[in-house]
Amino acid sequence: MTILIDHSDHNGNDNVEKNVTEEETELVLDDGGFVAPHTNSFGHTFRDYDAQSERRRSVEEFYKTNHIGQTVDFVRRMREEYGKLNRTEMSIWECCELLNEFIDESDPDLDEPQIEHLLQTAEAIRKDYPDEDWLHLTGLIHDLGKVLLHSSFGELPQWAVVGDTYPVGCAFDESIVHHKYFKENPDFNSPSYNTKYGIYNEGCGLDNVFMSWGHDDYMYLVAKKNKTTLPSAGLFIIRYHSFYALHKSEAYKHLMNDEDRENMKWLKVFNKFDLYSKSKVRIKVEEVKPYYLSLINKYFPAKLKW
Ligand SMILES: O[C@H]1[C@H](O)[C@@H](O)[C@H](O)[C@@H](O)[C@H]1O
Ligand SMILES: [Fe+2]
Ligand SMILES: [Fe+2]
């Protein structure tokens, strides 16, 4: 396995590559900072949706279905239905374990079970921000909404759970991955929805914007309605971490308000770990579990409604 080891500063400059065996691997092999690798586990640059990788076709198929199905109508129905949180009760950790069986079909960078990704993200954050325990926990739980794929949640299809998110009810920005497939979305030709502002106003705040339905908004609703004590930046990260058109391409900024702009700073910090910690490196779950259980205990009730 090839891992980047930092021999210089913490900005990722001047890295050297070294081959290490499975036993020696750690998420980050340096003096404490997380170093973003240049390539994903398939040897391609991250989020390259055109790279000829083994996942390219299936990822594109995924986005085609996603872009056709996410309409204002659909999003309204899902928010209403899943916002009831009347399906089951379980702890945060139980939910992490449920994610063990799922692989995210929208992701060109990772084909590991989701629990690996949660721990990789959280542990990477912990190295760089040791004192921000809320951010470690946010890393651990940010993708828990993918439990919507589970049979006890009506087995939602992948297109309604994973992938990048974007607003519905206004024009789909060209920076959205595989934008061309929106042409078949029924909202694409609706005059009330296909303008820059659509049904929204300048600076209305993201809280007033309907986002395509998936794991982000669902987990936000779960955390909020179960009265988490996570700071507002944590909730913002959970809710918008897949909104790459905004946090990477800077589209839709005209819908943000001051609070969104403040929270965006943390989302950008978070994104580095969410994206670049994706690797084949395994975290030893039993070793880190007590730490995360203590954080869950601090910020969440023992059982949550889902
Ligand atoms: O494929 C990925 C994956 O589903 C992530 O969980 C999501 O947050 C990303 O935005 C998406 O592109
Ligand atoms: Fe995600
Ligand atoms: Fe993630």
TrEMBL record:
UniProt cofactor note: Binds 2 iron ions per subunit.
Cofactors: Fe cation
EC annotation from Swiss-Prot or TrEMBL: 1.13.99.1
Alphabetical GO biological process terms: inositol catabolic process; L-ascorbic acid biosynthetic process
Keyword tags: Ascorbate biosynthesis, Cytoplasm, Iron, Metal-binding, Oxidoreductase
Gene Ontology annotations for the cellular component aspect, listed alphabetically: cytoplasm
Binding of Fe cation, residues: H117, H142, D143, H215, H241, D274
Principal location: cytoplasm
Molecular function GO labels: inositol oxygenase activity; iron ion binding
Positions that bind substrate: R47, D104, E105, S106, K146, G163, D164, H241, S242
Superkingdom of the organism of origin: Eukaryota
Catalysed reactions listed for this entry: myo-inositol + O2 = D-glucuronate + H2O + H(+)
InterPro entries the record matches: Inositol_oxygenase
Entry's localization field: Cytoplasm
This protein's pathway: Polyol metabolism; myo-inositol degradation into D-glucuronate; D-glucuronate from myo-inositol: step 1/1
PANTHER family membership: INOSITOL OXYGENASE 1, MYOINOSITOL OXYGENASE
Family membership noted in the UniProt record: Belongs to the myo-inositol oxygenase family.
Protein name in UniProt: Inositol oxygenase
Organism whose genome encodes this protein: Brassica campestris
